[in-house]
Amino acid sequence: METEAIVLRTIRFSEADVVLSVYSPTHGRLSAIAKGARRSGSKLGGRLQPGVWTHLSLARGRGDLSTVRGASTIQAHAGLWLEGYRLRAASSVLETVLRAIPESDASPETFHLVTRALGLLCTAGPLQSPPRLDPIVLGFQAKLLVVGGLLPRLGSCVICGAPGPLVAFSAHAGGVLCAGCARSGEPLEPVARDGFAQLVGHPLSEAHEVCPPAARFGVERMIGLVLQEHLGVTLRSATPV
Ligand SMILES: [Zn+2]
After folding, report:
1. Segment 173-198 mean pLDDT
2. What's the number of domains the chain is made of?
3. HSE-CB of 83 using CA atoms within 13 angstroms
4. Looking at residue 239, what is its pLDDT?
5. To pair with 168 at 20 to 30 A between CA atoms, which of 7, 65, 79, 100?
């Protein structure tokens, strides 16, 4: 089997072998063993780092685990490795794919979103905010919710439809809440609601302009609540609640 893939994670499996988690636009999330990848001089090893966009030749095993027969790099995203900030921001993107995308969920749209985010992060920052709050990371996560059909309602109260003022958010109810309905949610800064909506509506390349620093923590919080509510997922890289 041949497929493009983004390497999400590598786990040392034995003295010489590595188990990879990858995301493929046609097969979803896959695990594969790269035999001999840890040996010095292995051609495979260098091509299978997290964040690398690769073309894989895989042999299906008897179980779930495929074996990597060959790999050629499409885009190494080498810029990520030049800066700790970028690498940590990219880790947040890869962790989101690893944990928030169901295993069999193959989507060319999601794949494009991942490669776009990693490509943009190659030249990002370092910025003031922690890497997980980088607008590219948040914009990627917001758009992933759109692709997954999980985008909360942001423009008017999800319970009564009032246009505003919108003062709270409830992932359980599915969006923002007006003052009258706010009891069932948690407080929401208008700047965060606006930042979230702008990230959804603009290309990732404009994320920095449309999501100001004051909005970022609140956007991360809303995304975290949605992932928790719908997928039961808490991202390790996210701010502890
Ligand atoms: Zn309401």
Report:
1. 95
2. 2
3. 15
4. 60
5. 100
225 CA to middle of ligand 1, Å? 19
Residue 14 has pLDDT above 90, yes or no: no
Are residues 199 and 88 both part of a single domain?
Answer: yes
User: Measured in Å, how far apart are the chain's first and last C-alpha atoms?
Assistant: 42
Instruction: Please tell me the predicted confidence (pLDDT) of residue 241.
Output: 45
Residue 53: which domain range? Answer: 2-76
Which segments of the chain are extended strands (E)? 2-12, 18-24, 28-34, 53-59, 66-75, 166-170, 175-178, 186-187
**Shared-domain flag, residues 68 and 167:** no
Ligand 1 centroid distance, CA of 183 (Å): 10
Residues 68 and 39 in one domain: yes
With cut-offs at 50, 70 and 90, classify the pLDDT of residue 36. confident
| pLDDT of residue 98 exceeding 90 | yes
133 & 153 share domain: yes
Please check the confidence at residue 129 and state whether its pLDDT lies above 80. no
* Residue 120 domain-assigned (yes or no): yes
CA of 165 to the centre of ligand 1 (A): 9
Q: Are residues 126 and 217 in the same domain?
A: yes
Angle, in degrees to the nearest 10, between helices 213-231 and 135-147: 30
